[in-house]
Amino acid sequence: MLGTGTIPLIGYQEVAFGVPPSAETALADGLPPALLDLLACIGQVALQRGQPLYLVGGPVRDLLLRRPVMDIDLVTEGDAVDLARAVAQRFGGQVSAVSQFLTAKVRFPLWTVDLATARREIYPSPGALPVVQPGSIHDDLARRDFTINAIAIDLTPARWGHLLDPFGGYGDVQGRLVRILHDRSFQDDATRILRALRYEQRLGFALEAHTCYALKRDRGFLDTISGDRLRREVERVFQEPMPERVLGRAHDLGVLGSLFPGLQWGEEHRQALIRWREEGREVSPLLFLALLAYPLSLERAEALVRRLRLPRRWAEVVRHTLQAREIVARWASPPRPSQVIESLAPLRPEAVEACAILSTEQAHRQTLRAYLDTWRSLRPRLSAMDLLALGVPQGPWVGRLLAELRARVADGLLATEEEERAYVRRRLHTLKEEP
Ligand code: CTP
Asked: Topology of domain 6-175, per CATH?
């Protein structure tokens, strides 16, 4: 057990902001007892195999911040896959996702833990995937992105709860700073530029001064990142609790423009999204893609689709946003609800939402809100079965008449079920003359 207020630092640099609290306390406060028991058992098996075991990265940072822990990331010196198999066999887990980088997942009935072999990484060229070799826990912490993610808690029984903090990560947790470990960090892996902004905004931290300088200096290295990797980072931005903050910061630091020329997140985005949220509206991750695509030209939008190798659904959001923008731009006088439904119904909702947020005409924004709130879910009272019962022949006419009914209901021309029936009967007389 550790005494309060003391923590054995394992021969590494002193922290800048006083003595860290007991990581043992942080573990006990932050993780459920049954999970702690499981980790202790894994530590015991690792010890029997002569392998030290550590909790590392995000979970340590979140424990020290007293935030909920999302993943359990463990690192061992030595073969993590063998250890994963041994642990799974002993405690009834299943091993999966074994990778060439000597990592594995072990699924237990209640928890999943990730186990990795401590490794060192060498970046052969900027943006390339690193060359990976097994290494020590120190190597493993030294290859990481930021000091706050380069802390480990020892889970080996005799050293349970000891903190390994070679880069002053605890001090940066206390000082609420995102700090790179070395000057070329963003050049090695420019996805860290977006990671830095995500952590900064999610945790309410600030970029440490030199980190901020290096980030601005090296933002051009985003060009070295493959489309797939870049898209995955962008997706993680969209999945943050407040993506708009990350995007705003990325815009201000010139990162958005380096990510893809023409992307913007200005004051009007900020204000418009505040209003949107205040109206109690949903904000889905892909809405942010639509908002970014909104000002692009057709060519630039297609270039964005190619650069980020967007999957079908994402590409559709981009293309539909431009289509919706063009449709709305053609509205000279207020369009009838049925016209709005007809033109916008085939488009993805995020595309229409982006127009409802960013359109400069207040009247257009109101029309789009009416579409999203009411018109798009309007349906005739009669069903396909009712139409068949009225004598509409099976086949395309059923769908066409339902669409006609829907349009007339939306425009307020058919107020009751009886009026709908009367309309269908009238149409039945004219059907024969139509193609
Ligand atoms: N990491 C890194 N450089 C990267 C990606 C990841 O150094 N480009 C390291 C960090 O130490 C990070 C760990 O790998 O803590 C795990 O990565 P990830 O799961 O992406 O990060 P978390 O810190 O768990 O972040 P989040 O809270 O967003 O899940």
From this structure: Beta Polymerase; domain 2 (3.30.460)
